[in-house]
Design brief:
With 203 residues, the protein is α+β, with helices and mostly antiparallel strands. It contains 4 helices and 5 strands, in the order H-E-H-H-E-E-E-E-H. Helix 3 runs antiparallel to helix 4.
Length: 203
């Protein structure tokens, strides 16, 4: 379920300190619930999730197509983990990573938070939120995960995406893939997240 960006921006989140020059592209409520202390399990679950293995064929095809285009056009792949930040400067800055923007209390907080199948580099984590970044030839992006308290003390997983396109080409690329993300990729991935989380909790 898509969430209002204004609702996300009003919440007292640490991510706001790091990305004032980024655009909040998407906010999604994930079909993942648990107790307050289950945030660790949520991060491990997201870190091990492999979108290229989704049972939805159109979504899997688009994911594979993006990797093939990435190889052909030297855009960087999205299904292979990478080390470091890729060396691409964040558009409009001399920085290649947001790590330099981290306040002292958020540095060196990513132990146990990593990704098996996606090229995101963890930035920080707290007891209720975490963020990771990716840089390639089209965009510098940030994946933000939160554990939002709901009714009855239960918490819901939420995912936000911040982006800084790399020039006119990056902007055109983001505009081109937007319909496919909303109509095919995100719905399929969210259904897969729901199924996998339910199976993990039951097991």
């Amino acid at each position: 379920m898509k969430r209002l960006k204004a609702e996300h921006e009003r919440r007292p989140l640490r991510i706001h300190e790091l990305v004032p020059d980024f655009t909040l592209e998407d906010v999604w409520a994930l079909p993942v619930q648990g107790e307050a202390e289950d945030f660790e399990d949520f991060l491990r679950f997201i870190g091990s999730f492999d979108p290229s293995q989704t049972g939805n064929r159109p979504a899997r095809f688009l994911w594979d197509l993006r990797d093939r285009l990435g190889a052909w056009l030297d855009l960087g792949e999205i299904s292979s983990p990478v080390d470091g930040d890729g060396g691409f400067p964040i558009p409009g800055t001399d920085e290649t990573s947001l790590r330099g923007r981290l306040p002292a209390d958020l540095r060196d907080t990513t132990a146990g938070f990593d990704f098996d199948s996606l090229p995101f580099v963890p930035l920080y984590r707290t007891d209720r939120e975490a963020a990771a970044e990716i840089g390639n030839r089209t965009v510098h992006g940030v994946l933000h995960l939160t554990w939002v308290e709901g009714d009855g003390g239960r918490c819901d997983g939420q995912m936000a995406v911040y982006v800084k396109p790399r020039g006119a080409f990056g902007q055109a690329y983001m505009a081109l893939i937007k319909p496919f993300r909303y109509l095919v990729v995100y719905p399929a991935l969210i259904r897969e997240v729901e199924r996998s989380w339910a199976a993990q909790q039951a097991g």
